[in-house]
Amino acid sequence: MVLGVDFGRKKTGTAFMDMNIKIPFPLLLIEESNARKVKRALMDIIEEKNIDTVVFGLPLSDEGKESEWCSEIRRFSDFLLKSVKVNVVFVDEYGTSKEADYILRGRKKNVKKKANDLIAAALILENYLNVLNMNNKNDNV
């Protein structure tokens, strides 16, 4: 099982995916800014869903460069890895929040506010699948 994480300062969206089915499902919105509490919530998900890979989205710039926030996400992943044994992968999450906004167009503001990070986490897992598919195509060439 794979966990997608849209890590944020105040909210962290999560989604999960069975690699046999390859369909991401939004899971839990962690409305917390305390890193220890976010870590605890993620550890609970990892245990409950038997997660072996955690995919963090990195908000790269238009040029593909990492921001200071990317460094924070990497530091948090190291913090998480001190407590759980999982593979950690980073994928570009550029545009996932805007795509989530588009998916949620026409919905009430309070629904959008809650669902945006969940959908972004699912889109991060889609990006992960795209990276895997690209790597498999390159291996077959």
Write up this protein.
Could be a nuclease involved in processing of the 5'-end of pre-16S rRNA. It is found in: Cytoplasm. The chain has 141 residues and is of the alpha/beta class. The chain has helices spanning 35-49, 68-81, 96-103, 109-139, and strands at 2-6, 12-17, 25-30, 53-58, 87-92. The chain contains 4 helices and 5 strands; from the N terminus they run βββαβαβαα. Strands 3-2-1-4-5 form a 5-stranded mixed beta sheet, with helices on both faces. Helix 2 links the parallel strand 4 (53-58) and strand 5 (87-92). Helix 3 (96-103) packs across helix 4.
Brief summary:
Helices cover about 50% and strands about 20% of the residues. A hairpin with a 5-residue loop joins strand 1 and strand 2.
Overall mean pLDDT score? 88
Query: What is the CA-based Rg, rounded?
Result: 15 Å
Count of separate DSSP helical elements: 4
Q: What is the chains' assembly state?
A: single chain
Number of strands: 5
Helix content: 40-55%
Main pleated sheet: 5 strands, mixed
| Beta-strand percentage range | 15-25%
Q: Given the helix and strand composition, which structural class is it? A: alpha/beta
Order of helix and strand elements from N to C terminus: EEEHEHEHH
Give the low-pLDDT segments: none
Note the gap between the termini.
28 Å
Order the strands across the largest sheet as they lie in space: 3-2-1-4-5
Q: Give the overall shape, derived from the CA principal axes.
A: globular
Family: Belongs to the YqgF HJR family.
Organism: Brachyspira murdochii
Protein name: Putative pre-16S rRNA nuclease
EC number: 3.1.-.-
